[in-house]
Amino acid sequence: MPLHVPPAPAPALRSVLTALGSPTAVRGARTPAALRAARGPVRTELPLPVHEMGRVAHAPATSRSAPRTRLTGWRFLLRDTGGEDGGTHCGSAEAVLTADGWTFGQFCEGPYVRSTERALRQAKALSAPWQPRLLSVPELYMLTLWLHGDIASDPGAGSPEPSDLLIPLAPAPPGIPAHEPRRVDALLPLLTRRLLTAPLLRTPA
Questions:
Q1: Exposure of 99 by Cβ count < 10 A (0-12 exposed, 13-18 middle, 19+ buried)?
Q2: How many CB atoms lie within 10 A of CB 124?
């Protein structure tokens, strides 16, 4: 079933395209090596809104209620079109929401790029239509592909519904299998129990 990928806000996309057009940004020391070595034009694709989960650590271990989330940014996969067979992904770029509007945040690399690709392929193989989002759980240093059932909803709003699916990206926290789709009402109690024994960790990149 095709995924219903929502369009990113124009200012968010524009901030990323501006950064990609800046030699200073693209050649920076913290820019992914694969992006610096891109052989052709770099294209943005598969924009995903990034939501951050909060208040989970304070919920009862048996809670199945929807957690509070807030939109923190939009993440775009970056494709180096100079490679063979249409190119390969060479990282991701994130636009973040500030008091002054959307601005470029950072370029990223690492396992979450490949894991996001894999999770999106899993989602496309499912029988039901979904609106894909990313859901971060900072307390567990965890990132998931959030498949929202209301495909016509505002991608920057709302909370996970009990029947929505979450696909934990790799690496996932101990005891939570990566790339195993779980309903929100089944995974949330597991996350809560895990949080009771896990130290506070930084937000995933």
A1: exposed
A2: 12
* HEC-encoded secondary structure of the chain: CCCCCCCCCHHHHHHHHHHHCCHHHHCCCCCCHHHHCCCCCEEEEEEEEEEEEECHHHCCCCCCCCCEEEEEEEEEEEEECCCHHHCEEEEEEEEEEECCEEEEEEEECCHHHHHHHHHHHHHHCCCCCCEEEEEEEHHHCEEEEEEECCCCCCCCCCCCCCCCEEEECCCCCCCCCCCCCEEHHHHHHHHHHHHCCCCCCCCCC
Write out pLDDT tens, residues 130-155: 999 999 998 888 999 999 999 999 99
Q: Would you say 125 and 94 are in contact if contact means Cβ atoms under 8 Å apart? A: no
C-alpha 71/C-alpha 112 separation (Å) is 19
For residue 117, the one-letter residue type is E
Tokens 């990113």, residue? 8
List, in sequence order, every residue forming a beta bridge with 104; answer none if it has no partner: 95
Average pLDDT value for residue range 82-110: 86
Among positive and negative, which fits the CA dihedral 202, 179, 7, 154?
A: negative
Instruction: Scan for tokens 């124009």, then name that residue.
Output: 10
Tell me the two tokens of residue 179. 């790339």
Residues 3/120, Cβ–Cβ less than 8 Å:
yes
Q: Which amino acid is at 55?
A: R
